[in-house]
Design the sequence.
């Protein structure tokens, strides 16, 4: 199954945060907006969001202002 365009953009944003090791509030808001833009969070998007939440929880990625 081909990823949705929102899943691809979501992946890009999350990978940027992983590579930076930081996630700004604006980036986090944009990630949530991308995930919700079609009003459906598909399995790929859910997996990406879970991965991001896990990384925030274990501080692999730090949330900054």
Sequence:
């Amino acid at each position: 199954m081909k990823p949705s365009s929102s899943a691809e953009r979501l992946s890009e944003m999350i990978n940027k945060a992983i590579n930076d090791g930081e996630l700004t509030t604006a980036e986090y808001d944009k990630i949530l907006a991308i995930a919700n833009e079609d009003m459906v969070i598909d399995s790929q998007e859910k997996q990406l969001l879970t991965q991001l939440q896990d990384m925030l929880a274990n501080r692999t990625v730090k949330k900054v202002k």
